[in-house]
Amino acid sequence: MSKTMTETPRPKYGILAVLIIGAFIAFLNNTLLNIALPSIMADLKIETATVQWLTTGFMLVNGILIPTTAFLIEKYTVRRLFLMAMGLFTLGTVVAGVADVFQVLLSGRMLQASGSAIMMPLLMNVMLVSFPIEKRGAAMGVFGLILMAAPAIGPTLSGWIIENYDWRMLFHFVTPIAITVFLLGFFLLKDRKEKVNIRLDFTSLLLSSAGFGGILFGFSSAGNKGWDSPQVYLTIGIGFVSLVTFIVRQSKLERPMLNFTIFNYPMFALSSSISMVLNMAMFSAMLLLPIYVQTIRGISPIDAGLMMLPGALVMAFMSPITGRLFDKFGGRILAITGLSITVVTTYLFSTLSMDTTYNSIMILHAVRMFGISMVMMPVSTNGLNQLPARFYPHGTAMNNTLNQVAGAIGTALLVTIMSNRTESVASDLMSSSAGTQTDPAALATMQEQVAMQAMLEGINYAFFIATFIAGLALFLSFFIKRAGFEGKTDDQGVVKEQKSGKLVTN
User: Fold this and answer.
1) Which residues cross the membrane (predicted)?
2) Does the N terminus or the C terminus of the chain have fewer Cβ atoms within 10 A?
């Protein structure tokens, strides 16, 4: 960030307002799409393992581009980066809105992702340098309240649009708003920045893209290809080797693209681990629940959106409250409480049936969102609080990158588990029912019932696995300690000691 901004005693609320509006639009677009997935599957005649690329492809681009944001934030002004991000997001929205085949729709989503990849780390960095540690929880809470309004509005609005219009209207609806936000940024953002003479290491960029991109692509392909496909295990292998080489190279550079020495700060390392694990578990409901309520239960898109509204409202309402609680009590008690709720509710989602009532699903989802609201922002903020200010761009970039990787792995893993379980159960049910029906109409009805029952079993099993993933995050949360940067560093910015004790250094 600029020297001027870091020395300003009062937060620059004008810049924050424009950035938050931009992030809100990007976040709203994602929540609009979740309810639309079954409609897109039916219209474009694609399977669950294919439509999940609208989520994992978005994450793939984010995983490739986010590691560069630390460099971009250090080199360029907030205005320049915001206009670049919003411009790419707007272009992607236009492309997705005119898509008539899945490949064009996916291309539009990836363009959106290239803008979103810059937007969120940029906003988080501005938030961190704008508020002191003792006020950061409350500031992040208000920020979360605004962003959480998107999932409150998104599903219901999406359901109404899909019920009355084509799913492409979701993108047409966002386009004029995105253009307006771009123009607001163009005219209102006026920040200046001293010229910074740093260059992007293209070898690091190549290794980062191959590393994060290979891992993300490999896991995302598993749903379609299976884990024994060369496309899956070779790309994961190439990604892993590239990522290790990337990390080794960063440790030798005077100005690394992504500074991995921030993991010498234990609370940052722990918070990143908890966030990654929780992201893997969290995507189970985001992806599987709309499929269950619409495909299996036949609930209309608008009713599916209304069903998720209370959960989103709870999350939005709790955001400023958890921010203030974090300032007062720290992140440990919030994380333990929130993750305990998340584990229990995720398990209860693994017991869905053909007769589970609408109100039961709505209440369970709301309680689960209540639990998650107590974890995400407090845990992330606690980890970032331990970093010195010069590491904020690297901390926010690292968190966003790892969360994208974890989200893509979690999505691919749970979709694959669901698909494999569905196929296995369907095969068993068809074998046990073989020869019981000879009438073609009755046979078709039986096959449809078998397919629905098998998909239900697959979704339940995926939620069951997600319960154990959330349980791992709960276990890690017991090691959280209240963080604040109090240490000494050497010339390279590596932490040497803290009041709480010595730390191992590279």
Assistant:
1) 12-33, 53-73, 80-99, 111-131, 138-157, 169-188, 200-219, 231-248, 268-293, 299-317, 329-349, 361-380, 401-419, 461-480
2) C
For 169-184, b/e burial (b = at least 16 CB within 10 A) is bbbbbbeebbeebbeb
**Rounded CA separation 193/77 (Å):** 6
Domain extents in the chain:
3-200+257-502, 201-256
**Which residues 6+ apart lie within 8 Å of 23 measured at CB?**
119, 120, 123, 147
CB 63 within 8 A of CB 110: no
pLDDT of 462 above 50: yes
Distance CA 168, CA 349 (A): 30
Residues 6+ apart with CB under 8 A from 74: 196, 198, 393
Question: Under a CB-based contact definition with an 8 Å cutoff, are residues 394 and 354 in contact?
Answer: no
C-alpha distance from residue 445 to each of 186, 437, 453 (Å) = 58, 10, 12
CATH match for 3-200+257-502 among 1.10.10.10, 2.40.30.20, 1.20.1250.20, 1.10.760.10: 1.20.1250.20
User: Where does residue 399 rank: exposed (0-12), middle (13-18), buried (19+ CB within 10 A)?
Assistant: buried
Confidence of residue 10 (pLDDT cuts 50, 70, 90): low
Predicted pLDDT of residue 448: 78
Q: What's the pLDDT score for residue 494?
A: 42
Residues facing 258 on adjacent strands: none
Sign of CA dihedral 267, 272, 275, 281: negative
User: How far is Cα 114 from Cα 111, in angstroms, rounded to an integer?
Assistant: 5
Question: How many angstroms separate the CA atoms of 262 and 503, rounded?
Answer: 12
How is 91-142 classified by DSSP, letter by letter? Answer: HHHHHHHT--SHHHHHHHHHHHHHHHHHHHHHHHHHHHHHS-HHHHHHHHHH
Question: Residue 422 — very low, low, confident or very high, per pLDDT cuts 50/70/90?
Answer: confident
Contacts of 449 (CB under 8 A, 6+ apart): none
The two tokens of residue 410 are 């979690």
38 neighbors 47 (Cβ within 8 angstroms): no
pLDDT at 338 over 90: yes
Q: In 3-state terms, what secondary structure has residue 501? A: strand
Hey, what are 121's tokens?
């780390």
- DSSP tag of 502: E
Is residue 107 helix, strand or coil? helix
CB 162 within 8 Å of CB 301: yes
Q: Which of 185-194, 206-215, 248-257 has the lowest mean pLDDT?
A: 185-194
CA distance 151 to 31: 5
User: Does the pLDDT at position 180 exceed 70?
Assistant: yes
**Which helix or strand (DSSP H or E) is residue 495 part of?**
strand 495-498
Contact criterion met (CB below 8 Å) for 267 and 120: no
pTM of the model: 0.72
Among 45, 60, 53, 155, which Cα is nearest to 101's?
A: 45
Residues 109, 97 contacting (CB under 8 angstroms): no
Q: Supply angle C-alpha 81, 85, 87, rounded to 5.
A: 115
